[in-house]
Amino acid sequence: MKLYSTNNHDLKIDFQSAVFNSMPQDKGLYMPVEIPALEQDFIQHLDRYTLREIAYKVSFALLQDDIPANDLKSIIDDAINFEAPLHPLDEDTYVLELFHGPSLAFKDFGARFMSRVMAYFLKDNEQLLDVLVATSGDTGGAVALGFLGVPNTRVTILYPKGKVSEIQELQLCSNGQNIRAIEIDGTFDDCQHLVKQAFADDELNSKRRLTSANSINIARLIPQTFYYFNAVAQLFRKGKREVVFAVPSGNFGNIAAGLLAYKMGLPVKQFIAATNVNDTVPRFLETGVYETRPSVQTYANAMDVGAPSNWVRIMALFNEQRESVKEMVKSYRYTDEQTVQAIADIYRQFNYVACPHTAIAWLAIQEYQKQQAPADDTFVFLSTAHPCKFPDIFPAEIAAKIDIPEQVNALRQKEKIATAMPVDFDAFKAFLLTAE
Ligand SMILES: Cc1ncc(COP(=O)(O)O)c(C=O)c1O
Ligand SMILES: N[C@@H](CCOP(=O)(O)O)C(=O)O
């Protein structure tokens, strides 16, 4: 697969280079030069395939020139070793549960695939790979588990102090080995900015081999297409064909992957990007003005992103045409009060406990339904994290219903180890240069 920079269409590189360089020097993002259309026979008969078979077919269409078929299959089988089931709320509404991986968030798809792809490409005796990741809550934990013990790699996680849940923090800060955490006295956007500054710093790049495990890295995006195909496969088995996906969105990597799947031929009627009050994208779609703002802290903390890095990819998928994006992507925003109310409503109506991010996607479906003429649609909202990661958000009655997975009980026994740091690039650079 050849990739170009969204800031310079003449700059083209191969997949392996894009994985290790993660971001072009011109600060664009890498996108496939050509998006392969999947065979109609495969699309029409998705229901015949398992998640892993789908993952292999989709990734092979993209990466056949980069990773031999058998190696790709081994990577998939190792990385995607958990399911993404659809849970019915009613006849036409389903939750796509993406939290059955080790870190209990959808990030496991991207992080596990990416770590295995990097390990595959890394050669013995190469310079240590410094993997940087900014997190607003979930990415860091998934990346930590994805890279834990991977030889020749070292992960540095930056997270905003006081803005992640206790369980998320333990997932970031209790790994040891080749994983270390920095607690930044700022917002997620500050963390993301520090990481981007590191990639642009000549001295740092001459002395360290840096790469990103954020969704700016194309290796994170590809595996996130798998579960959209697999959701449609599950719906086909139920005889359902017209699907509307609602995606809780922050950095817009998840929905960008859904739109990539759509461009590869996945039949989808509509995407809905649901945000909290960090509403850069819904404002842009309404007004045409793309204005990033400092992020605001909310209950859906992993979506507290004021400058969503993947939006440029979505614009690129639609040839920079806002009107075309608007046709395929509706976008609505919600406050914390609405989020808490939605959690209670979902619980009361369906006896289902949704995390705050997931609840926002459900709200967006309600809004979309109000605005459209009735149709024979099936609604799928993505559940991006296990509710146990956010125990403080739920009223006691609902919290009591949450099944706590074994790995969370084990986490609570562990010690938090993190380096405290202000929002100061010099301090971050010194840390990367001096620490062994
Ligand atoms: C639980 C959860 N929901 C939603 C999101 C938003 O996803 P994206 O940043 O891909 O838009 C995130 C973080 O990325 C998350 O951790
Ligand atoms: N919501 C994310 C923020 C990082 O986004 P990513 O798209 O780069 O993974 C998180 O949970 O950390």
Automatic annotation (TrEMBL):
InterPro entries: Ser/Thr_deHydtase_PyrdxlP-BS, Thr_synth_N, Thr_synth_N_sf, Thr_synthase-like, Threonine_Synthase, TrpB-like_PALP, TrpB-like_PALP_sf
Boundaries of every Tryptophan synthase beta chain-like PALP domain copy: 94-383
Keywords: Amino-acid biosynthesis, Lyase, Pyridoxal phosphate, Threonine biosynthesis
Pathway(s) served: Amino-acid biosynthesis; L-threonine biosynthesis; L-threonine from L-aspartate: step 5/5
Domain of life: Bacteria
A single BP term in Gene Ontology: threonine biosynthetic process
EC nos: 4.2.3.1
A GO molecular-function annotation: threonine synthase activity
Obligatory cofactor(s): pyridoxal 5'-phosphate
Cited PROSITE patterns: DEHYDRATASE_SER_THR
Record-listed N6-(pyridoxal phosphate)lysine modification sites: 107
Residue span(s) of domain Threonine synthase N-terminal: 4-79
Known catalytic reactions: O-phospho-L-homoserine + H2O = L-threonine + phosphate
UniProt similarity note: Belongs to the threonine synthase family.
Protein name according to UniProt: Threonine synthase
